[in-house]
User: What shape does this take?
Amino acid sequence: SILFSSAGSKIKAAYEKAAPTPAFQHAAALHPDQAAMLKPGSGANLNDTAFLEHMDKVLAHPFLTGFSSAMDLVFLVGAAVLVFAFVLALRLKEVPLRMVSGLQAAREEAAAAGAGPDAGGATHEPETVTPAHT
Assistant: This one.
């Protein structure tokens, strides 16, 4: 969203900066049809950049520079979000892991409190069964 909202103005600014240079003027004179595509209101579809492959490199350079400038903004915003997330992560409270299982911790709590049935759900002492000899 940041890229495509800022790309148009960055590309326009790059073309405005390059237009008065002698190299751009020379390339525009050699390729008037390509230079006409770059003028505002020419009806050129900037959503499809395939036209850059066939365009003179000097005429295409401001487009690529403007798009690159828009990408710089995206990376700067991403870096700011990353720094904010890192600071937030440092401020989170550390919760130590348990050293025993949940059942064992419940049994220890019940034994410390002197509760009746154990945490496993048994209501009486286990029976000892002796095997019968046949």
